[in-house]
Design a protein that fits this description.
Blueprint: E1 2-13, H1 17-25, H2 30-35, E2 39-50, E3 54-59, H3 65-72, E4 80-85, E5 88-89, H4 95-105, E6 106-109, H5 121-125, H6 127-132, H7 136-149, H8 165-178, E7 183-187, H9 195-212, E8 215-220, H10 223-229, E9 232-237, E10 240-245, H11 247-252, H12 257-262, H13 268-271, H14 274-277, H15 298-304, E11 308-310, H16 319-324, E12 329-332, E13 338-342, H17 344-352, H18 394-401
Parallel strand pairs: 3-8, 3-9, 6-7, 7-8, 11-12
Antiparallel strand pairs: 1-2, 1-4, 4-5, 9-10, 12-13
Helix pairs in contact: 7-8
The structure holds adenosine-5'-diphosphate and magnesium ion.
Length: 402
């Protein structure tokens, strides 16, 4: 069951935004509206996020990711469309009700997580609870637990400036976890970190998510990060979502030329898994092994297979077994039951084929697509968050004063 649903969300900045939405509904694009002096930041975005899922929104800078995220927690009011969390329509709530939902159910982690310099790490981690009015003793207990989850046990009494950038970002994550909010919204949360620390944080988030099972929307402009973290990935371009799918869907079935060129430099052997490309076991049965035996049954196939791997095994690990035998590699599920086979031809075909765009179901066809000038690369970290006056969260204020 999906916990978060956004339907036909629009956000237009500038004069007469409702008129602009009507034009967009009629097929106008961003450039046409820009001539009128309005910015269509998000155009007709619909997403659904399940409990326990990491939903990644990926796109180049300016594609509308942050604006979309800010509508999900009500920081920005949509020009049109609805956002529901646990069935509750956030767009219909009063400011007061919204603040309550936001403080209890939703946590946000920004790119530059600004800590309060004159509060200890523990106090910083407990800040969200303080806003909720949780008494001190409970606040400190829960903040300490959250710090331990993010690997910061022992640092509770330190000051923020005694921590490295990566550790400060962990405090931000701990602050979000301490509130017990079920919905985590993460905007480029790891983008300002050095590559090694960043990978570490990604691992930590994946590990935490196994037990915490939050509903997470994670924004990034980094394709590899998206592929690593995302159970589902939405690719945004010029305010629109141009494709939603798993990493495999996007790599194997890009919805259009834009997505295809976006993904061309991804190392497919590390992103694609045995489970995603395997053939049915039936296709192997009846074939002949190198020693002349017929592989008549699933058991005979398993015995002759050069290796047995789990569904999550990246294709990179299948090269050696595939080159060792003409019998396909066996693929099993979590319980060890045989679920498929990867023949060497299939491996080579999947890795060799350059992804051709295919229309994906449920995604509107895009008008004549331009190819991005360059693949997304890490940008110089900077606080690129445009903020509507008067709707700042405490974090934003701290950033401004930091
Ligand atoms: N408060 C605002 N006022 C006017 N334009 C804005 C505002 N916030 C964002 N935009 C514009 O909307 C577009 C999408 O911005 P944003 O959502 O920040 O993209 P991303 O997070 O993908 O970099 C950009 O063209 C940006 O300049
Ligand atoms: Mg942004």
């Amino acid at each position: 069951m999906s916990r978060l649903q956004a339907e036909h969300l629009y956000k237009v900045f500038g004069r007469r935004p409702e008129d602009a939405v009507r034009k967009l509904e009629a097929g106008a694009d961003r450039d046409e509206l820009r001539a009128d002096g309005t910015t269509a930041a998000v155009i007709d975005a619909s997403i659904e996020v399940d409990e326990g899922q990491i939903f990644v929104v990926m796109g180049l800078s300016g594609s509308g990711k942050s604006t979309l995220l800010r509508m999900l927690n009500g920081l920005l009011e949509p020009t049109a469309g609805t956002v529901r969390f646990d069935g509750q329509d956030l767009t219909s709530l009063s400011d007061k009700e919204l603040r309550k939902v936001r403080s209890e159910k939703i946590s946000m982690v920004f790119q530059h997580f600004a800590l309060f310099p004159h509060r200890s790490v523990l106090e910083n981690a407990g800040y969200g609870l303080e806003v909720q009015g949780v008494p001190r003793a409970e606040r400190e207990r829960r903040a300490a637990e959250a710090l331990a989850l993010t690997g910061l046990e022992g640092w509770e009494k330190s000051w923020p400036d005694e921590l490295s950038g990566g550790m400060q970002q962990r405090v931000g994550l701990a602050r979000a976890l301490a509130t017990d909010a079920d919905l985590l919204l993460m905007d480029e949360s790891f983008s300002a970190l050095d590559p090694l620390i960043r990978r570490d944080m990604q691992d930590q988030l994946l590990e935490l998510q196994k037990s915490l099972k939050k509903t997470i929307v994670f924004i990034t402009h980094d394709l590899n990060e998206a592929m690593r973290l995302g159970d589902r990935i939405a690719v945004m371009r010029d305010g629109r979502i141009v494709q939603i799918g798993s990493a495999e869907d996007i790599l194997v079935r890009p919805a259009n030329d834009y997505v295809a060129s976006f993904i061309q430099d991804v190392d497919r052997s590390r992103v694609l898994t045995a489970g995603a490309v395997m053939s049915e076991v039936g296709t192997v049965l009846g074939t002949t092994a190198p020693d002349g035996r017929t592989l008549g049954t699933a058991a005979e196939f398993r015995a002759a297979a050069p290796a047995t791997v789990g569904q999550d095994t990246p294709l990179a690990e299948l090269f050696t077994p595939c080159s060792a035998s003409t019998v396909p590699v066996a693929v099993t599920d979590d319980k060890g039951a045989l679920v498929g086979a990867v023949p060497a031809e299939r491996l080579l075909a999947v890795l060799g084929e350059s992804a051709e765009p295919q229309p994906a179901p449920g995604v509107p066809a895009q008008p004549a697509v331009k190819t991005p000038a360059k693949a997304p690369v890490d940008e110089t970290p900077g606080n690129d968050e445009p903020v509507e006056p008067g709707r700042n969260e405490p974090e934003d204020k701290v950033i401004a004063g930091a």
